[in-house]
Each structure stands twice: as C-alpha cells, then as structure tokens.
Amino acid sequence: MCPALPSSPMCPPRCQGCILYECFIRNRTLSGVSAMAIISGLTVVFHNTVPPAMAGLALTYAAHVTGLLQYTVRLFVETELNLLSVERINNCSKKLMPEGRAAVSAEFGQVKMKLADWPRHGSIKFKNVCLRYRDNWPLVLANVSFRISHGENIGIVGRTGAGKSSLLVALFRLVELASGQIKIDDFDIASVELETLRSRLSVIPQDPVLFAGTIRYNLDPFGRCHDTELWDALEKSHLKSKIVTMKQKLDSDIESDQMSVGEKQLLCLARALLRKTKILVLDEATASIDPETEMAIQSTIHLELRHCTVILIAHRLSTVTSCDKVLVMDNGQVSEFDTPGNLLANPNTKFSQLMTAAQNNRGNVPL
C-alpha cells in the first residue's frame, strides 16, 4: 500500500510527486512479479496444451511490460512536476508585488539635483511608521516613532519577533509602509528611487556576503578605488596582516584562500568603509563571530565611523552598552529609547531586565 501523501505546506509538490512516483514503482513492480507468477503457474497447469515456445514468449513479454509501465508512470510524474513549475511561475508573475517606485512629488522635483550628496549628515526620523508584510496580515511595526541624530551610534535590542529586523526592512524599503513616514536628513525616502536610496546606505549582515572572485573585486566591484584606498580600508578593519600573507594579495581568490567567518565579516566591514556612506547598519553582524573579532569591529566603528550614523541590531547585549542610545523593541513598538546608563539605572526598564536575564543565563537570552 502507498502511504498517505503529506499535504502540509512543509512538503512541497515536488516532494509529493517523488513519493507518488516511488509508490507507483512499487505497485508496478509488484504487478509485474504477480503477472509473471500467474503466467508461470498457468504454464505449469496447462503444460499439455500450451507450447513451450508460447510460454517463453509470454514470460518475456510480461518482463518487458513491467519496465514499460514503470517508464510510463515516470513520464507522467515528471510531466506533472514540470506543469506545477510552470503554474508556480505564472502565479508569481501575477501575484508577486513588485518593489515600489519613488513617489513623484513637488518636493522630489525641487531637491532632485541635491541627491548627488544626499545624505550629508545621516539623521533618521521614523514618524508613526506602520508596516505589514502582506495585505490583511497583522502589523509588524505599529506607530513606531523615534529620531536618530547624525553621528549617533544606536543599538536596537528586543526579544525574537519584537520587530528589530522589520525596522531595517522599512528603512531599506524592502516592503512599502502601510502608513507613516521615514526621513533621512529631513527628506522622505518614499520620494527617492530605490537604487539611489540603497546605494546611500551600507549594511553588514549576520552572514557575510562575498562574491565569487578576488579580494579586490569583493572590496571594490566597480573598480572605483585605488590600491592605496583598498589597503587603507583593510588596515582599518584589522585585516591587512591577513591579506599581506596571501600569495597574490589583493588578487587572491576568495574561494581558494581559506577565510574564517570573522575574517569574512571584517572584509565586509572594509567594503563598507570604502563606500563612505553616512549611515551604516549592522544586522546582528557579530552574532556568529568570536569575541576578538567582535572587539575589532567595535573598535573600527568607534574610531573610523564616529562621524557616521551607526545602527546596530545586537545579538549580545554587551555590544550595545557602549552605544550612544539603546532602542528597545517590543511587539512591533518602541518600548524604550534612552542612553544605556539611564536604562540600566532603572531596574524596571525592559533593557535592564534583559540585561539581568542575560547575566543570569550567561547570555542565552533569545534576541
């Protein structure tokens, strides 16, 4: 018997098709063996009336029919899977919402020429921001309002699902706002082309993103920087000593030369330094690296990026104690926004409670 096929979303149609194919194969094999057994039995029973040549021919055909049945079923299953792929592509092309375009407004027309050096300072303002990932889905950000002055180092903390990463989704306009407004240097980002907006922001994700190619290509894929600038960025990110030891140095292949996760993260930091943007976002960038590399990243941020606005989504609470301010998220809302000293001074604040829980559990608090 064929087992019941899983119908949950966790079992994709392709897996269901493979299970169905295996079931058919088993059934066809069993049917073929049964047919040969029946023919053999009839040959023995009617050996006086059935010539040996006809009996052998019948057994030969029965063996071939089994293989043909299996091949036919396989073609049917593969055809169904291919049609499912076409159906999914068609659904995506019709239902997947494209990324939003810049809103054409009078304000945008007046300052369009100034976007060449925007943002000059890097101040960020969220005003009554509401965000949901799909229509009719619950809000992941609800009336979020806060202001980050230029040059501030802001740490964002909160338990899992509190809305920390959703703030970055809104800032990079990966999903358009349900309502509210986000301004950078008092300019609404909804009026900025996505390519322009994202080119003025730098991000270092939790998993370092490197391209297939050389170190030079990963640092400067468009070839805009001189070698001295590349070496300077590597030195500031504490990675120069590693690259110098490589045989081809800047032209060394990332795939052939082994680099640890921490070193790859430092390479992403060097790439961010070369971009010279006014806003740097670290999305739990220190979550999967050793404490030594984390200290190197923090040192570079405080020394080389002191004139930039830095937003740090923290995995370890200890990393935000040196920030200018800490933003505590809870259920998609801003729970607290103050200096670490003021928040820790009050034992009733959520940040103080998170810090106490982290100390009691040796840092094992889901953030």
Question: Could you give a short description of this structure?
Answer:
By secondary structure, the chain is of the alpha/beta class.
Strand order of the biggest β-sheet: 6-7-8-3-9-10
Q: Report the strand count.
A: 10
Percent helix among the residues? 40-55%
Name the average pLDDT.
Answer: 80
Please indicate the percent range of residues in DSSP E strands (runs of 2 or more). Answer: 5-15%
What separation lies between the terminal Cα atoms?
Answer: 47 Å
Task: Sum up the structure in keywords.
367 residues; alpha/beta; 6-stranded mixed β-sheet; 4-stranded antiparallel β-sheet; 12 helices; 10 strands; disordered N terminus; transport; ATP binding
Describe the fold and architecture:
It is a single chain. With 367 residues, this protein is an alpha/beta fold. Among the domains are: 83 residues; 69 residues, Rossmann fold, CATH 3.40.50.300. The longest helix has 44 residues. The protein is 44% helix and 15% strand. It is elongated, with a radius of gyration of 31 Å. The protein starts with 12 loop residues before the first helix and ends in a 7-residue tail after the last helix. The protein contains twelve helices and ten strands.
